[in-house]
Structure formats: structure tokens, C-alpha cells
Design a protein that fits this description.
The chain has about 260 residues and is an alpha/beta fold. The chain contains eight helices and seven strands. It has a single domain, classed as NAD(P)-binding Rossmann-like Domain (Rossmann fold). α1 crosses α8.
Length: about 260
């Protein structure tokens, strides 16, 4: 299991009050933390992932705390399914103010020359094309009500050579490019688009990597000035700020959330 130093959650301040926010990859990790946090900050959240049972548990938890939440099944490898999920947001709320495109899939760790065609295809469809498709659908809904904000989850691995996860790093770097391009393309319509580049984060994805490559967590902590993995909520906090009106002049940015590991 991953090893982190737990932080004390900050009290909600209504950062996203009145906003409708769509979250992909919301059944676990950063996405699940985002669902809970965004709802606590006042957003009506629509949580999307393949794991509908996990989503329903999170929705039940949010509603029990007085929040507004719904779940929708989503296969990020299926472009038509992405559009259906965004249409569901419109059916539920009639608008979309924020989108956190967070869903991703890890590749089988290994060097460039042993990466399979299947891994490359999966990385392309889920970690790159799905975000492209989602952003177009999200922007179409946002512009009907005067704009909104989109945040894409990239990775510290997009910023430098990534010999252990070459296809993952390549598609995340491509995601950085379309994030910046979308920001320039849609800025005049009041749609802000930013990305975050988390470093090592205590999620199931890192646990899976550690299982096949023992020592990954220890090496990450040693390479991180803050000396630990991020907690999912810490990453979600940055996304929440970028989606909020507090970040009204921020667009086209790729924000590191890596404890200084990329400095």
C-alpha cells in the first residue's frame, strides 16, 4: 500500500456554490476525492465512471451529507458513450459550469521497445482521445449559458522522458497540447481550460504499479522535496480552485501538483 502523511482537510468555503460540475474517473482515487470535495464546496456533481456500484456509494455518501450528486456510467474508450454522459448532465441540470476530465488508464510498465500495440491503443483512446471528445461536448453545453471551466488531469510524466511508462507519458503530453489549444480556441467564449500535472499520488493506480515494480513508492518519495505521495484530496483541491471563479484569469495553464518533484 502507498505511504502518505495525512493532511487535515480544510473546511469548505463555498468555492463552487451554484455550479454544476461533471467529473470523469470519479469512482476512485482523485476523481472520487474530487466528487466529495466539489460537493462539499457547493457544486452539484455528476460523477462518471465504469464502476457504477462504486459511484452509487459515493453519491449516497454525498447526499447523506446534504450535497447534490448523481451518477452516470461512462466508458472513456467509447466516444459515443462520452457524448451520452454529457447529454445526461444537460438532462439533469440543463447546464454545465465545470468539467474535471480525470479518468485515465495505466499502461503495463516497461521500456519503449516492449510496449505492446494494445497498450498504445488503450493509452490513445482513454488518455488522449477521450479528453478531446469530452472537451468538445462539454464546451458545447457550456457555451449555451455563457461559458465555464474545464480541468484535465495530465501527469508529471508528461513533462519529461518517461522510460517506465512511455505510452502513458506520450499521451499525457499530447493532452497538455490540446488543453492549451482549447484554452486559446475557446477563450473568447468565456470557457477556461487548464490542466494539472500530479506527481506520485496515493491511489489504486500507484498501488498497481508498485505491485509489478516494487520500490516505485520509495523512489517517488525520495525524489519529492516534500518527501511523500500526495493524497487524492490535495490534487482535487487544485482542480477545485481552477474550476472556481477565483481562477477567473487563469487559462491555458498546466499546474504542477507534485510536491516539488518536477522543479
Amino acid at each position: 500500500m502507498t505511504n502518505t502523511t495525512h493532511t487535515t482537510p480544510r473546511a469548505p468555503v463555498g468555492l463552487l456554490t451554484g455550479k454544476v460540475v461533471f467529473i470523469t474517473g470519479a469512482s476512485r482515487g482523485i476523481g472520487a476525492a474530487a466528487g466529495r470535495l466539489f460537493a462539499a464546496e457547493g457544486a452539484a456533481v455528476v460523477l462518471a465512471a465504469r464502476g457504477i456500484d462504486a459511484l452509487e456509494r459515493i453519491v449516497k455518501e454525498i447526499r447523506a451529507d446534504g450535497g447534490v450528486a448523481d451518477a452516470v456510467t461512462l466508458d472513456l474508450a467509447d466516444s459515443s458513450n462520452i457524448r451520452v454522459a454529457v447529454d445526461r448532465v444537460e438532462e439533469l441540470h440543463g447546464r454545465l459550469d465545470g468539467a474535471f476530465n480525470n479518468g485515465a488508464v495505466i499502461q503495463q510498465p516497461g521500456p519503449l521497445d516492449t510496449t505492446s500495440d494494445e497498450d498504445i491503443d488503450a493509452q490513445f483512446s482513454v488518455n488522449f482521445r477521450s479528453h478531446w471528445t469530452a472537451m468538445i461536448a462539454e464546451a458545447a453545453l457550456m457555451r449555451r449559458t455563457g461559458g465555464g471551466a474545464i480541468v484535465n488531469t495530465s501527469s508529471i510524466g508528461s513533462r519529461r522522458a518517461n522510460p517506465a511508462l512511455p505510452a502513458y507519458g506520450a499521451m499525457k503530453r499530447a493532452l497538455n497540447s490540446i488543453t492549451e489549444t482549447a484554452a486559446v480556441t475557446w477563450g473568447h467564449e468565456g470557457i477556461r481550460v487548464n490542466g494539472i500535472t500530479p506527481g506520485g499520488t496515493a491511489t489504486e493506480m500507484i498501488d498497481a504499479w508498485e505491485a509489478v515494480s516494487p520500490g516505485i513508492v520509495e523512489a517517488n518519495n525520495a525524489a519529492t522535496p516534500l518527501g511523500r505521495m500526495a493524497e487524492p484530496r490535495e490534487v482535487a483541491e487544485v482542480a477545485a480552485w481552477l474550476l472556481s471563479d477565483r481562477a477567473s484569469m487563469v487559462t491555458g495553464a498546466m499546474v504542477p501538483v507534485d510536491g516539488g518533484a518536477g522543479a
